[in-house]
Amino acid sequence: MMNRSDPAQVSPEEYARLAGEGLQSHCLLPLISRQRRLGVLGLGRRPEQAFHQEEVAFLAQVASQVAIAVENALAYGQIAALKDHLAQEKLYLEEEIRSELSFEDIVGHSAALRRVLHQVEIVRPPRRPSSSPARLARAKSSLHAPFTT
Known about the structure:
The chain is α+β, with helices and mostly antiparallel strands. Among the domains are: about 10-65, no CATH class; about 100-149, no CATH class. The protein contains 5 helices and 2 strands; from the N terminus they run H-E-E-H-H-H-H. It has helices at about 10-20, 55-100, 105, 110-125, 135-140; strands at about 25-35, 35-45. Strands 1-2 form a two-stranded antiparallel ribbon. The protein is rod-shaped, with a radius of gyration of 32 Å. The termini are far apart.
């Protein structure tokens, strides 16, 4: 935490920027959340008046809340990116299932399995395009023996 604009405490560029804005005093507080440094909260004053200890204590509390908000925003961005990536992967895998694995290749030439599948289609209409491949796989794995007619 810094208080008052002292050229020895900041870079020449930063001091020039502060002076250019007419700021005579400033308070810099670290934004730390879960032992991770996220940035700095900087406040400035035009009159050359140091920040009082009560103000600094209050601003430190504000800085901790800002750090939590920044960390939450970063986490939300990461989650959104991962969600988008998973959605793209899901679409890719569904397309792979549709294009490379036809159901007839899985069933093979077994007459018994084909009769069972025909009976299932009679009881249940064919799969809609919006049905998930995982649901279809579960339905296939639950067939144990052919129906008798």
